[in-house]
């Protein structure tokens, strides 16, 4: 099997461009949030440090933790990562939703009572994460005003934009808190990304956030509202595309 040649990462400026894009995608806005948080919402993904981070936030704020995620793009890498951490065969986790998979790790944390955990198990993409989370909370007659979103750092900004768009008729305020801000060398040891997966996600997320006919914004698919896209990020994207054998990925 032939692997892509990423030797260009050693050239001046290439690695720095990737790190700037990652820092942009890993939106952090909790520092500007209110003192009171009503809900922590963990979106299904394969970065297991998100689970520890979300659980700790829910404990600190003495609030509910909602885990959202059915079976989608992140499910296979999540199963692999979770099987490794729990030292079990991946087959024992087959058929479980991402919310159910992640809840297994949360359940091991005795600092958070099980009756403080809510699962949404049907969503298969970020838009459904937002919509079905709203539906589950409506069914429980819960109307959180201040919600912290925890997601794979590379998906954090789009998750924030998606929830704001889907909930635009609600008074809730959203704050973002990824578990860490990735840097290329360190990130591959902190999460379940391969180098190719990591870099294709960088380019894919910029393409989805950029408000063009091919993106997810108002001029494109309409999944999110307008997102500020700094010129520097577009320059960095172009640099990576010219120098690395990649196509934007999910």
Automatic annotation (TrEMBL):
Residues 49-169 form the DUF218 domain. GO terms for cellular component: plasma membrane. InterPro entries: Cell_Envelope_Assoc (IPR051599), DUF218 (IPR003848), Rossmann-like_a/b/a_fold (IPR014729). CDD domains: YdcF-like. This is DUF218 domain-containing protein. The lineage of its organism: Bacteria, Pseudomonadati, Pseudomonadota, Alphaproteobacteria, Acetobacterales.
């Amino acid at each position: 099997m032939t692997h892509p040649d990423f030797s260009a990462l050693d050239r001046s400026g290439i690695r720095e461009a990737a790190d700037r894009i990652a820092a942009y995608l890993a939106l952090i806005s909790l520092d500007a949030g209110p003192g009171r948080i009503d809900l922590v919402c963990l979106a299904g993904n394969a970065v297991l440090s998100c689970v520890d981070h979300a659980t700790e936030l829910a404990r600190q704020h003495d609030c509910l933790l909602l885990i959202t995620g059915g079976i989608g793009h992140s499910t296979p890498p999540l199963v692999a990562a979770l099987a490794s951490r729990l030292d079990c065969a991946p087959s024992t986790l087959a058929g479980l939703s991402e919310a159910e998979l992640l809840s297994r790790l949360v359940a091991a944390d005795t600092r958070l009572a099980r009756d403080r955990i809510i699962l949404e198990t049907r969503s298969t993409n970020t838009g459904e994460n937002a919509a079905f989370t709203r539906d589950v909370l409506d069914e429980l007659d819960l109307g959180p005003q201040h919600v912290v979103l925890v997601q794979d750092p590379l998906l954090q900004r789009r998750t924030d934009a998606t929830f704001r768009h889907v909930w635009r008729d609600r008074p809730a305020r959203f704050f973002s808190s990824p578990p860490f801000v990735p840097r290329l060398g360190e990130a591959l040891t902190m999460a379940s990304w391969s180098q190719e997966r990591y870099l294709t996600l960088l380019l894919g997320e910029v393409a989805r956030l950029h408000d063009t006919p091919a993106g997810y914004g108002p001029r494109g698919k309409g999944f999110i509202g307008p997102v500020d896209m700094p010129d520097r990020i577009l320059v960095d994207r172009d640099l990576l595309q010219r120098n690395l054998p990649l196509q934007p990925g999910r």
